[in-house]
């Protein structure tokens, strides 16, 4: 018995084609905004001499984390500079920062909304489940169709992949605020806005920062995959190493990604404690 096939793929293709035909102005505006953001971040990160940037990033690690992390930052970042991957590393950092900033701008309000409204949580939760379980390569398909090749679809695909943790942990953090704090804030006459910004968000900050940390780590894990659509940075170098069988190139670029990931992880872990 032949069972009729549900045309899921064709329906998705029709949706993508319809959006491509009827929402061109929207995608052009998004592309222009992301391009401007990336250009600005790359300009700021590449403007100082690499040695000055290493000193600044290490001092930041000392202030936010510890002396040992600062020492690791000096050695690790100088190794990246010495191997000749400084520009690619800053391009990668720009892409990650752009994707994370957009994720936080969307994810924290969504997390707050989910914490305040049970209906919103019931709608958002399955969407996040799909976003976290869908293979990362699938995000590249609509990103390339809407934004062509280059860093912009890389930022969009990275943003979608890294968004769920900050939404989930913001929602969880606010829901775990003790009831006594709610009652105390309301008894002192706080309105909903004051309750949120002066009581709930400060108490939920460690959970929110854990979400920020996870978002950054997921964004970094997309660096090599984004390189497949010409996002640039260290992802392109790793792919060159794979496709051209240049073991040294792939290993050095991979080590640079690891150093950047450890630096961002350790620094952001301590950010919420300041």
UniProtKB/TrEMBL annotation:
It is a multi-pass membrane protein. It holds the Pfam family BPD_transp_1. Keywords: Cell membrane, Membrane, Transmembrane, Transmembrane helix, Transport. It comes from the Bacteria. The chain crosses the membrane at residues 59-81, 93-115, 136-161, 216-235, 247-264. Residues 89-268 form the ABC transmembrane type-1 domain. It is found in: Cell membrane. Belongs to the binding-protein-dependent transport system permease family. This is Proline/glycine betaine ABC transporter permease. It comes from Pontiella agarivorans. The lineage of its organism: Bacteria, Pseudomonadati, Kiritimatiellota, Kiritimatiellia, Kiritimatiellales.
């Amino acid at each position: 018995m032949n069972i009729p096939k549900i045309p899921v793929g064709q329906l998705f293709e029709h949706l993508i084609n319809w959006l491509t035909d009827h929402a061109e102005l929207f995608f052009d505006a998004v592309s222009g905004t992301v391009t401007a953001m990336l250009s600005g971040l790359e300009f700021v990160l590449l403007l100082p001499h690499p040695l000055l940037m290493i000193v600044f990033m290490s001092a930041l690690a000392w202030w936010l984390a510890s002396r040992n992390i600062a020492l690791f930052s000096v050695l690790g970042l100088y190794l990246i500079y010495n191997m000749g991957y400084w520009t690619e590393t800053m391009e990668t950092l720009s892409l990650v920062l752009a994707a994370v900033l957009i994720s936080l701008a969307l994810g924290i309000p969504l997390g707050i909304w989910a914490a305040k409204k049970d209906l919103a949580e019931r709608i958002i939760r399955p969407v996040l489940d799909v976003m976290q379980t869908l293979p990362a390569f699938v995000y590249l398909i609509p990103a390339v169709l809407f934004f062509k090749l280059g860093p912009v679809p890389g930022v969009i695909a990275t943003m979608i992949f890294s968004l769920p943790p900050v939404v989930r942990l913001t929602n969880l953090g606010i829901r775990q605020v003790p009831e006594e704090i709610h009652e105390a804030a309301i008894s002192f006459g706080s309105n909903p806005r004051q309750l949120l910004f002066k009581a709930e968000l400060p108490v939920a900050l460690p959970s929110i920062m854990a979400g920020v940390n996870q978002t950054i780590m997921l964004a970094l894990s997309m660096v090599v995959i984004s390189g497949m659509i010409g996002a640039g940075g260290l992802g392109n170098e790793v792919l060159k190493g794979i496709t051209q069988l240049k073991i040294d190139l792939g290993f050095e670029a991979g080590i640079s990604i690891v150093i950047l990931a450890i630096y961002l992880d350790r620094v952001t872990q301590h950010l919420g404690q300041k």
